[in-house]
Amino acid sequence: xxxxxxxxxxxxxxxxxxxxxxxxxxxxxxxxxxxxxxxxxxxxxxxxxxxxxxxxxxxxxxxxxxxxxxxxxxxxxxxxxxxxxxxxxxxxxxxxxxxxxxxxxxxxxxxxxxxxxxxxxxxxxxxxxxxxxxxxxxxxxxxxxxxxxxxxxxxxxxxxxxxxxxxxxxxxxxxxxxxxxxxxxxxxxxxxxxxxxxxxxxxxxxxxxxx
Length: 211
What we know:
This protein starts with a helix and ends with a helix. The longest helix is centred in the first third of the chain and has 23 residues, at 12-34. Helix 2 crosses helix 5. By secondary structure, it is mostly helical. It is built from eleven helices and no strands. It has two domains: 1-56, Orthogonal Bundle (Arc Repressor Mutant, subunit A), CATH 1.10.10.60; 59-209, Orthogonal Bundle (Tetracycline Repressor, domain 2).
């Protein structure tokens, strides 16, 4: 144990990453109220004292996990090279990337739901996330402006509303996949259903913006 602790002491970034990964899984599964620091400590190979040292407590750890989740999706969007694409291709790529992020990171949906359950108080003072969101909206606004200038997009589309729509049409489908599957009578997560949903999302967004 002494050697393990000494190793971790020399690798603070890895220790923090291990704790965050374990916390992400625990919070995604049980939410803030149900998650236990002891379980996170065991899963991360750390201990409670180290968690308190790095994060201060369970509430602060939850804040860090939520921040990481949002940073992840915003970072992925910034790497798409949207500004170098045609406006139509850029929106297409953004819709696909948003959908794929949800599929590749299923914990994102449950974490966001948990954050909303607590009325977003864990991100309310987070200036970094607001800055990232502002940059995202501005990027979408730029795509719309270029599309307008080329007379391919309708005039006056609200970039904030479009950002919300792109997020919502995928998020709602996946967060309600279990009840939806029962009520609509098909498996929302089958390969065919997911492909059809993505195409519907693309058609919806493009019909909103195209002239």
